[in-house]
Amino acid sequence: MKRLLRQIWGVFKKDLLLDLRSGGRLTAVAFFAGMTLLLFSFAAPPDGISLGLNAAGYLWLALLLASVLALGESFRIEVEDEALEGLRLLPVDPMALYYGKALATTTLLIGLCVLVLPAALVLYGVAIKGAVWKMIATLILGCAGLAAPGTLYSAMTSRARGQDVLLPLLLFPLVIPVLVSAVKATSLLLHGDINPGGSASSSHLSLLLCFDVVYWSVCGLLFGKVIDE
Amino acid sequence: MNQAFEKEHVVGALGALMLAVGCWLALFVVPPMVNFGDLGRPLFIHVPTAWASLLVFTVAFVIAIIALRKRTRGWDAALASSVEVGVVLTALLLFQGMFWARPTQNFWWTWDPRLTLSAVMFVSFAGVLSLRSFAEGLHRRIMWTAVSTIIAYVNVPLVYFIVKITDRGIHQEHSTPQTVSDVYHLALRLNAFAMLFLAYWLIARRSRLILAVQGGADAGPPAPQDGPELVAGVEG
Question: Domain range for residue A22?
Fold first, then answer.
């Protein structure tokens, strides 16, 4: 167990280091998310009310679209120069490889949230009315829910023809339950949960947690099969 | 070319016969429904299609687990064909629902939880088929199809149980002998088994076709049969 954790930490560190050193890519993904937020504002009447009402949905859609770019990149660097083959030659458990990469992508997406959330609050004229810790939990769980199946699918699609079409095609339907619960929870936290004790946002958060547990366990078990060729 | 008679045709013919009898009962024999009158009759095919699609995806899920272990051409064909038949059944399900909803509810589509999840189920498994078509090599094709089928299956129990968890929308409780009037049992049961038999027949036929196509592709061009040999377009 200790060995597995050490391996996960090693892969996680390697991925984050690569992301940080290629700063241009990170900045591009962040700008893409910001630009998507800006584009959504043209989809609603310019009265501010509709934008505020749909702010949570726009925020998560921007994160989803940006996550596809981040995920595609995450495995493109492994496929170039057969880096993945090199990793597999090392005595590293495929599960460690998966969890390391998925955690790195989750961290990247959380970093993106830190940049995008204030931009969304400003652009759409909303503020966090619910508990801040719940908002942080929603963002972390939502990003984890996007990263878990995304990492597995990008491992497959990065080595296929037509990867740019395939990843969103496979990922989007799969993350709809995650997206729905994240949007509902975020929306309740932005506009105030009128239920006693904020119970509605809590139930959406627990649903989000359930999906995370399912995806993180199932994808972790299956990852070895995908890269074992 | 003579081919041996394949036994699945018996199941297919039985399914077609049961479907004909079931639809005749549903259209002409059973009394109209209290809520929808004659417009409720499409439900006798809609509900069995829903059962069959969920069951076929469950079969695909089980086959995917086996295919991950066995990694043979046969299991790969069985997996791909069951996913394909499941996708076709789900497409039928969505269209039947839309054509029933237009006259009874006055809309083609609504964001009812079960309907939305069924649409998600459809695109998830259609995605599996797309991924499969891009995979090169037998091993990669089996692995990718099996893994993506297992993950896409996460949504299937949700489609079944959602009416118990949240707002039921335009869908009713699970259709069981307790929740459905006695006079409707026979037509529903006949159609349910008919859809299953037809699904089995389609899966078997499609598996054979996939195996034949792949076998042909792997073996290269067919060996020359008895008859005149062609050398550079000239009979030798």
Answer: 2-227
